[in-house]
Amino acid sequence: MKFFKILLTLFVLLCSLTVAEAKTSKNTADYRTEYLNLDWWQKYNDPVLTDYITTAYKNNQDLKIASLNVKQSEQVVKMAFAGQLPQVGFQGDVFRDLSSATVKMGAITVGDYSQSNFFLPLTMSYEVDLWGENYLKTKSVKKQLEMVKQNERASYISLTSAVAADYFNLIKFDKLIKDQEELVKLQTEIVRLEEIKYKNGLCPVTELMDEKQLLTQLREELNVYVDKRLIVARELGVLTGLREKDLSVMPRSDYSVASLLPLPQSINAEVIQYRPDYLKVEDYIEKIGIDAKVARRDFLPKFILYGQAGFSAYNLTNIFGNHTFKSLIGFMPSIDLFTGGAKMARLRWTKLELEKAQQIYEKTILNSVQEVNDALGGAITREMNYNESIKRYNLEKEKFALADKKYNIGAKSNLDLMKDSEKLLVADKDKVSSQVNYLISTVNIYKAVGGKDFTTINEKL
């Protein structure tokens, strides 16, 4: 009966501790969808872009690896927590004792004998965490888990930003190729007309050679655009896991669909508190501080509570009888008197690691502020360039309208009108490049501020 009471007590203790840990580790919200931040990407007003972001969330291998790293770290936390619990196991002992010599027990002499021994106990051991060392070890591992989660969040921010940048570049090259093909078509016609002029003696050969040379340059530029579009499409295919599809027919919107987000004039430096690298280094400092406490408490004595409860008999048929029950309980203090300086070295190493972590923290702050300022400064410059490119395009458009009027009244030749049309296409290419570069610069700001909405972030600080 005593045996079953002990078993019941151990079972209740283990179950209560396990349930308590399960409650603390339960996570009802899928934080990964928050990392994806679809509300932000919908601000660009391009449903194809959000579709690519969602597809990458489902298929990208880097995100899956990051999620698996988090799951592995969660198991490490459980292993560390197990060190705070009693350990119960079964270790039976069955042997045959053969004595062929006379055995003396004081005044009693035992002759030759042989007998079987059966010992079937449950063994329990528990290190009494008097100094909280095992608790601190678990706390340190939990901080490591938080660091891994920040790595996962950084992967989400980096991936979604890369998908958006590749997508915007893809639609940019679509428009540039379209304009470039029109330029090649116009220049081909210009060369044909120049050849007619040259044959009729209306232009020097150098003028014809210049137009042919320009045609080769335009064709080379077209080839470069086609090649770059293919490279970007492949990158986007890898990021989204769509490699098996024909990259040339990957869906995308027109370059003018995406909304141009307004830029703040400045961003508060406190925004770096949202960045994964900043949060990670904060967790690292806390983890090393905990490790330092563990290293100090490792010098203190340890106390282990142990016990056994089971059955011992010389005959297997009556091993579960009441008279065969055997139990013991003990308390074992222990302290390391000499370890060759290993514990002191561990403590000093941890202190140095803490000092190094503080330096990493300072460096992270400086780098984070620099990246935010660089991203914002670059975006403001690209916004100004975009505005200037619009002005230049509008002026070129007005000039072309005047040239078209001259052509209609016979004051301008068709050849000159085609050259004016080429200038308008070049201005349009510049405008498209500036617009998409502006879009990508807003993605860079999003990445620099830690995946937050930079248009309203100053209001939240």
CATH topology: the name is Outer membrane efflux proteins (OEP)
Structural class: alpha+beta
Number of structurally distinct domains:
1
**Cα-atom Rg, whole angstroms?**
38 Å
Write down the oligomeric state.
single chain
Per CATH, which architecture?
Up-down Bundle
Helical content, roughly? 55-70%
Total number of β-strand segments? 7
Explain what you see:
The protein is of the alpha+beta class and 461 residues long. The protein has a single domain (37-84, 129-300, 335-460), classed as Outer membrane efflux proteins (OEP), CATH 1.20.1600. Helix content is 65%, strand content 12%. It is built from eleven helices and seven strands. The chain has helices at 2-25, 31-36, 38-41, 47-59, 61-82, 133-199, 205-240, 276-297, 342-408, 414-448, 457-460, and strands at residues 87-90, 93-99, 103-105, 108-110, 113-128, 302-313, 325-334. Strands 1, 2, 5, 6 and 7 form a five-stranded antiparallel sheet that branches. A two-stranded antiparallel ribbon has the order 3-4. Helix 6 packs antiparallel against helix 7 (205-240), helix 8 runs antiparallel to helix 9 (342-408) and helix 9 (342-408) packs antiparallel against helix 10. It is elongated, with a radius of gyration of 38 Å.
